[in-house]
Write a structure and sequence with these properties.
The complex is a heterodimer of chains A (about 170) and B (about 650). By secondary structure, chain A is of the alpha/beta class. Chain A has 5 helices and 7 strands, in the order βαβαβββαβαβα. Classes of the chains: A alpha/beta (about 170), B alpha+beta (about 650).
């Protein structure tokens, strides 16, 4: 089975860890995030009939107090950029982070997940922002940690992009 | 017919030419190719890479075959043109040396730390004992005992992606997800490096949790992580290093191009499994068994030693009691040997008996650890009685004493005084009924003999006494009575064999002799032919009574009676009858005078003494007057013997 390292990146409080909690095989507690700054989980997805094992490095949220530890990104085959759909600022932060990551590790496949899709009333990402993202070539996934929507699809899509010949 | 007449050999040659000409051409060409060195080299060069590749896939025969040639070639090349190798190796030498030195120092430090750690621990003390017992150095023992370890798991992890390439475990029960563990190991390395050594390419080499430790051995593309239980031996790290190098040799390109498919590394499983060393199992078992045996042997040795010591002490105690009971004057009535408090001995003890504490010491026991309780008694056995005698009387060197049935037997040479005291006092000693002397040679001290004589005879101040060779020599003056007593009894004194009193004057005898001489020399003259005392006769007569009394007294001292013979003389003139009467009358006249003076008449004998001879005419020697006289003669029983 093919293994791939992927990273979960996003601003603090966007729900990265909650997003994948129900979908992954986990053996380490969440406190690793606050101590080592990373927690590693595992998930197997089927991409076009091929099994791919994703080693998911859930990185501590990037904020003013804790900058993203770029060394954890080394060797990653792709990453899931997570933003909170109810807080537009986290999208801006995600875009900024992506810029830094791309600069650090070069072009690798990634997906943008706009989380908390279940909180439609508070949703702040309007269509113009979505168009803006589309213009960048990004295809955001709306996900919900609470309802589990979009998560599996996001991982499958990311897996597909990673094993496709570039 | 002519055709039929051709030589058969020629015909056969022709036939062969027609049939085999093509093959012969090919053979020639092949022969040329084989013999032509250049062509042969070209042929080999074209197949050599493929051949080498195939040979490597089939095994390492080619490697072994080439090894001597390659080594020889390199050696020769290094000797001839070393600069080429220097240039080639120069970029590598520095890092290699640095790494080697660092690794050596690290191992040395680890060894030192382990030695320190074990020196003062219980285990360290046990190892010290083992070192003493086996004669091995302590370091060697520590090294040997440190070999107790087990490599539980081994991860081969891709450095770039942190993905697990291969995971082997010694214990199938270990089911932790190796992929995630491998990821976290990498994350921890990144964390440590970012936190403490940012920007460096080094890796976290080991960390420890209680009895477990994790060693990480880096390679260029991948690293090994070994989870180890216990204290790994120092050989483990080089083995792991060798393994990661082997991994890179065998799968270098696969590692470089790794894109997530770990199946290519499955073939490395034997190499990794060879690192799952488990020396601990037998070592520990043996260790436990050895320790158990040591404990058993030590306990057995202690027990044996205890039994031997106890038996030895018991034997000493019995021997001591035997000695005690064999001692005259000692009677043991109760004896208890105790191990943890003083032993006790009770009984009867004669004052003359041997010292029990000294006997205990002689038997090898500590007298301080024995409590004696003795009651005094008088032992009547021969030895005790003899000791008592020896304590009472200091036995002279040349004397021998023995006691048999209460009889004290004395033999040898002894001083009279010692013997005398024994004779008098020995029977006062309990156990001595009588004294018997056998062949006793008695010696007498002259001074003591003289002193004894002096005390016995009340030696007068006027007498000197000395004892020489048993002869008592007396000198000076003494009364007749004392002298007689000495003569009679001195030789009865011990140490006096005879008496020499030639130099001793008998005072009484001398007085008697003097008085007798005076009396007998006194002439009482008478008138011619008359019994009247002449004038000069009175003078002599008047002195006589005192002298006679003195003489009587002296005679008395000498133990005899005296009488006086009063002799009457007359001159030759006249007749014999007349003269005889005259002589008698004259004698009677003096006797009467003496009677009147108080002398007993019985002791006065008046006789007429006839002139024994007539003096010749003209003889003037005796005056005529002297013939008319009375003379006195003292008569005693001793008169014949004494002067």
């Amino acid at each position: 089975m093919i293994q791939k390292k992927i990273c979960m990146i996003g601003a603090s409080g966007v729900g990265k860890t909650s997003l994948i909690a129900k979908f992954v095989h986990s053996m380490f507690s969440d406190k690793y995030l606050t101590t080592v700054g990373v927690k590693i989980d595992k998930k197997t997805v089927s991409v076009d009939g091929e099994e791919v094992m994703l080693m998911i490095w859930d990185l501590q949220g990037d904020d003013d107090y804790q900058r993203l530890q770029m060394s954890y990104l080394r060797g990653t085959s792709g990453y899931l950029l997570v933003a909170d759909g109810t807080r537009q600022i986290t999208l801006d932060q995600a875009i900024e982070i992506q810029g830094r990551v791309a600069e650090a590790i070069g072009p690798v496949p990634f997906l943008l997940a706009l989380n908390k899709a279940d909180l439609a009333p508070q949703w702040e990402i309007d269509q113009s922002r979505m168009d803006d993202l589309a213009a960048r070539g990004w295809k955001p996934f709306k996900t919900s940690a609470k309802e589990g929507a979009g998560v599996e699809e996001a991982f499958v899509e990311l897996g597909r992009q990673m094993i496709q010949p570039h | 017919m002519q055709r039929g007449a051709r030589d058969p050999a020629q015909e056969f040659e022709e036939l062969r030419r027609l049939l085999l000409s093509r093959e012969r051409e090919q053979l020639r060409e092949l022969s040329d190719r084989v013999s032509d060195k250049e062509r042969r080299s070209q042929d080999i060069a074209s197949v050599l890479p493929e051949a080498v590749k195939m040979s490597r896939e089939r095994g390492d025969q080619l490697t072994r075959a080439l090894q001597p040639a390659v080594e020889g070639s390199i050696k020769e090349s290094v000797e001839r043109r070393p600069q080429i190798f220097v240039d080639a190796l120069h970029p590598l030498i520095g890092p290699i040396v640095r790494k080697s030195v660092a690794e050596t120092l690290r191992r040395l430090l680890q060894s030192f730390n382990q030695t320190l750690e074990h020196t003062f621990s219980w285990r360290g003390l046990k190892w010290r004992w083992e070192s003493l017992r086996t004669g091995r150095s302590f370091a060697e023992v520590v090294m040997l005992r440190s070999l107790v370890y087990r490599v539980q798991q081994l991860f081969l992890i891709h450095r770039e992606t942190s993905l697990s390439l291969l995971h082997v475990t010694a214990d199938p029960a270990i089911t932790k997800d190796s992929d995630m563990v491998a990821g976290m190991l990498s994350a921890i390395q990144d964390f440590a490096r970012d936190s403490f050594a940012p920007g460096e390419d080094s890796v976290l080499e080991e960390f420890r949790m209680g009895e477990l430790q994790v060693w990480m051995v880096p390679g260029h593309y991948a690293y090994l992580a070994a989870v180890i239980q216990g204290n790994p031996s120092l050989e483990l790290r080089p083995a792991l290093q060798e393994t990661i190098e082997t991994v890179h040799v065998l799968k270098g390109s696969a590692l470089a191009e790794f894109a997530g498919d770990a199946s290519a590394f499955e073939s490395l499983r034997p190499e990794l499994e060879s690192c799952l060393r488990a020396q601990y199992a037998t070592a520990r078992k043996d260790g436990k068994s050895t320790r158990a045996w040591i404990v058993i042997v030590v306990l057995a040795a202690l027990l044996t030693a205890g039994i031997i010591v106890a038996a030895n002490n018991r034997s000493k105690w019995k021997n001591f009691l035997g000695q005690l009971n064999a001692q005259p004057g000692l009677v043991v009535t109760d004896a208890r040997q105790k191990w943890f408090s003083p032993s006790q001995v009770s009984g009867l003890r004669d004052a003359s008996s041997a010292d029990p504490a000294a006997l205990a010491r002689d038997a090898g026991l500590d007298p301080a650890r024995i409590r004696f309780r003795w009651k005094g008694h008088l032992a009547l056995d021969s030895v005790s009685v003899r000791r008592r005698v020896e304590q009472r009387f200091v036995v002279p060197d040349q004397a021998r004493i023995a006691v048999n049935d209460g009889v004290l037997e004395i033999a040898g040479t002894v001083p009279y005084e010692w013997l005398d005291s024994v004779r008098h006092d020995a029977t006062l000693i309990p156990g001595v009924k009588s004294v018997v002397e056998r062949d006793v040679n008695i010696t007498y001290d002259p001074a003591l003999t003289r002193k004894r004589f002096e005390q016995q005879f009340r030696l007068p101040d006027t007498v000197n006494a000395a004892v020489v060779n048993g002869v008592l020599i007396l000198s000076g003056e003494a009364s007749h009575r004392w002298l007689m007593r000495a003569r009679a009894a001195a030789v009865t004194l011990p140490g006096i064999k005879s008496l020499d009193d030639r130099a001793l004057i008998d005072l009484d005898q001398r007085g008697f002799d003097q008085s007798k001489s005076i009396i007998e020399s006194a002439f009482i003259y008478f008138l011619t032919d008359k019994d009247d005392i002449a004038t000069e006769g009175f003078a002599a007569l008047s002195r006589l009574p005192d002298e006679i009394r003195r003489c009587e007294k002296a005679a008395q001292q000498l133990g005899t009676d005296m009488t006086l013979e009063i002799q009457g003389y007359a001159d030759a003139v006249g007749t014999e009858n007349r003269n005889s009467d005259l002589r008698q009358r004259r004698a009677n006249r003096v006797r009467d005078f003496l009677v009147s003076c108080g002398f007993e008449p019985e002791r006065l004998k008046a006789i007429s003494v006839e002139q024994p001879f007539k003096p010749a005419a003209g003889d003037k020697a005796l005056p005529e007057q002297s013939q008319r006289r009375v003379a006195l003669k003292v008569l005693t029983l001793l008169s014949n013997s004494s002067p």
